[in-house]
Every structure is written in structure tokens, then in C-alpha cells.
């Protein structure tokens, strides 16, 4: 075996590049979960006043200061510029690799073909009380350094990539702590005051910040502006429809809530969360036939097609079955109600609603 062939089969090397500020509550947990993966850890601090740097220094000497200029992409690009290894991995301070995913990553590291320039991974946004993933999407997470891929966007930045790509089932899990919830909104508002013309993507994420701050009427305005550009990414278009439906729900405007649920179907085939929304609407209006239709459809959809957008696992697994149990029970179809309760139980076996339904349906079936 030649020296060159040995080199080609050796594990890739990885620089972990992060931007941080006042992350003392989470940074140690994050770095401990990734230290076996990274050959180099590069930390760019944008103005910490807590113990972040002290905690980081346990893991690396490569700590750099970056003057904050209201631009996340600029900070991330600076961090990437300090990397020296073959590949660059990025994380946020409140992200972790759980043990199973860390092992999967180490396997990938030892076997990755160096022709691969971009590796995407799943991103677990939230989990339920049982530790099961509720919502999830996919992000480009590991990139070849020599390609000089760049971050774009001052807020809610994204990594612009190209070339040969590998999609994996490795997951990064988001475990957030309280943060400066006004930070991003203030950045957008300062940019707006300067007269900056927002891109379609900026319109969408500015609307998200407004919605998160319960400024529903302003959020509606910017979601509608975003959709009117007709230049948005399809997943953001669908996301805007979902969030518009939320806004109108909070404003008790049922007509517009339904309008944007149905509008989402123009961008792609129905997603499970929209089907459950419609099922819920019809169930509340005691329209059992329509409710059953939409909840059943939610159980039949392939959620893998939406992997790059947010996937609501509850709406694609146990929730519609639990609601179908309610629908069929109200219709007096207790056998079908029991069947769907048991299907829901496969996903949430210890949920008290499952046990309550079993007791009730046992009584009803016994009386027939």
C-alpha cells in the first residue's frame, strides 16, 4: 500500500468554528459534546462579559475577539478564516451532539470520501417530555475548507455552498437557554431605520421576529410582503403560510387563518401540520367527516420530502391518531377509535391520554 493511498483512507481533520457571546450557561456542554470530533476548536468572541472565555480556554487556545457590527455572517466568516484543518464544522453554543450522534459522526469522520465538499445533518429543534423529536430540519453542517464557502446575511445567516454533497442522518440537537430575545429584532429595526431595502429572505425573518414578539399585525404585513415578492424559497413560503395562520388565529380571524392554510397547498402537497390544523378546525365545529378526512391524510404523508423545511413529527405521528380516536368516539365508532388510540400509543405509550382513552373505550366497547 503506497503512502498516498494510506493518506486517502485516513480520517479527515476538522476545525470546529463557533461565534459566541455570554454563553457561560451552555458553552461547556457544547464543547464537551464535540471535543472528540474536532481536531481544532476556533472560538470567536463578539463581546462576552461573563465567564465564556474562561470556560472555552479549557478546550482551546484559539480564541479570537471580533468587534460586533450587527452582522452574524461577518462574524462567522471571520471564524471560518481562522480554521486550518481540512473540513469546517459549525455549531451554536446551545447545540450539542448526543452520544449516539457523536458516534455516528466519528464513523463518518473515519470514512468520509474527500471528494465530498458539503455534509448536511439533521437539526433537532425541540423534543417532547419523552425525549422524542418534535420538530426537525436539515442544515449544511460540515464543509471543505479549501472551497471557501461564505456565510450570507446579517441575521438568520445561511451558508452558501455548492459541489459534491452528502446528506446524513447525524443530528445536532438544540438545547436552548434564555437569551437576549430582542437582539435580532433590534438589528432588523436598526437596518430598517438606515433605509436598507430588505431581501425576500430578510422580510421573512423580520416577520418571524415580529411574530415571536406578539406583534401580529406588523408580522402579517411583512409575511404578506415576503409572499408578494414571489422570490422566496418554497419552505419559507410554506413557513410564512403557517405563521400567518398562527397570527390570524391569535387575532381570532378564522377566515384568514383558513385562507393561509389552504394557500400553503399552492407551494407543495399538503404537509401534516396543515392537515392537523384543518382537522382541529372541523372537529371544533363538530364536522366529523371533514375532521376525519384531514387527520387521516396527516397519517398517510411522507414527511421525508420536507426534510429541508421544518418537519413537525407530532403532526405526522401520534397527534392525528389521537385526534382520530376522539372523532370516531364522538361518531360512536368505538372500535375505530380504539384502533387509532393504539396506533398513537406506539409513539407515546406512557401518555396519560392513552390510558384514559383505553379505560373509556373498554367501557364503551363492553356495553355494545
TrEMBL record:
Record's protein name: Glycosyl transferase family 2
Coiled coil, from the record: none
UniProt xrefs under Pfam families: Glycos_transf_2
Keyword set, alphabetical order: Transferase
Entry-linked InterPro entries: Glyco_trans_2-like, Nucleotide-diphossugar_trans, TPR-like_helical_dom_sf, TPR_rpt
Protein species of origin: Acetonema longum DSM 6540
Keyword Transferase: yes
GO MF annotations in UniProt: transferase activity
SUPFAM superfamilies per record: Nucleotide-diphospho-sugar transferases, TPR-like
Alphabetical list of CDD domains matching this protein: Beta4Glucosyltransferase
Keyword Transferase: yes
Domain Glycosyltransferase 2-like: 15-136
Amino acid at each position: 500500500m503506497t503512502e498516498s493511498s494510506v493518506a486517502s483512507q485516513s480520517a479527515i481533520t476538522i476545525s470546529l468554528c463557533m461565534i459566541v457571546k455570554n454563553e457561560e450557561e451552555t458553552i461547556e456542554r457544547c464543547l464537551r459534546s464535540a471535543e472528540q470530533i474536532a481536531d481544532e476548536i476556533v472560538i470567536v468572541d463578539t463581546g462576552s462579559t461573563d465567564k465564556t472565555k474562561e470556560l472555552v480556554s479549557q478546550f482551546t487556545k484559539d480564541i479570537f475577539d471580533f468587534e460586533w457590527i450587527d452582522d452574524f455572517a461577518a462574524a462567522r466568516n471571520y471564524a471560518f478564516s481562522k480554521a486550518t484543518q481540512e473540513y469546517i464544522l459549525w455549531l451554536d453554543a446551545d447545540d450539542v451532539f448526543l452520544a449516539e450522534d457523536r458516534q455516528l459522526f466519528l464513523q463518518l469522520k473515519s470514512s468520509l470520501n474527500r471528494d465530498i465538499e458539503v455534509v448536511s445533518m439533521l437539526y433537532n429543534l425541540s423534543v417532547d417530555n419523552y425525549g422524542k423529536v418534535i420538530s426537525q430540519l436539515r442544515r449544511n453542517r460540515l464543509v471543505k475548507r479549501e472551497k471557501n464557502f461564505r456565510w450570507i446575511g446579517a441575521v438568520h445567516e445561511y451558508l452558501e455552498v455548492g459541489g459534491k454533497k452528502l446528506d446524513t442522518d447525524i443530528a445536532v440537537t438544540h438545547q436552548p437557554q434564555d437569551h437576549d430575545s430582542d437582539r435580532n429584532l433590534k438589528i432588523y429595526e436598526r437596518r430598517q431605520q438606515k433605509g436598507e431595502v430588505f431581501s425576500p429572505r430578510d422580510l421573512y425573518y423580520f416577520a418571524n421576529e415580529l411574530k415571536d414578539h406578539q406583534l401580529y399585525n406588523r408580522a402579517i404585513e411583512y409575511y404578506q410582503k415576503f409572499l408578494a415578492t414571489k422570490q422566496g424559497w418554497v419552505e419559507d413560503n410554506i413557513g410564512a403560510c403557517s405563521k400567518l395562520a398562527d397570527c390570524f388565529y391569535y387575532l381570532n380571524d378564522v377566515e384568514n387563518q383558513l385562507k393561509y392554510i389552504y394557500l400553503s397547498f399552492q407551494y407543495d402537497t399538503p404537509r401534516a401540520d396543515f392537515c392537523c390544523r384543518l382537522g382541529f378546525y372541523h372537529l371544533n365545529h363538530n364536522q366529523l367527516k371533514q375532521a376525519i378526512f384531514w387527520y387521516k391524510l396527516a397519517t398517510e404523508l411522507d414527511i421525508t420530502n420536507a426534510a429541508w423545511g421544518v418537519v413537525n413529527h407530532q403532526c405526522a405521528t401520534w397527534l392525528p391518531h389521537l385526534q382520530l380516536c376522539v372523532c370516531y368516539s364522538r361518531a360512536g365508532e368505538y372500535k375505530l377509535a380504539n384502533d387509532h388510540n393504539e396506533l398513537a400509543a406506539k409513539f407515546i405509550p406512557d401518555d396519560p391520554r392513552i390510558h384514559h382513552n383505553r379505560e373509556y373505550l373498554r367501557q364503551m366497547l363492553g356495553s355494545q
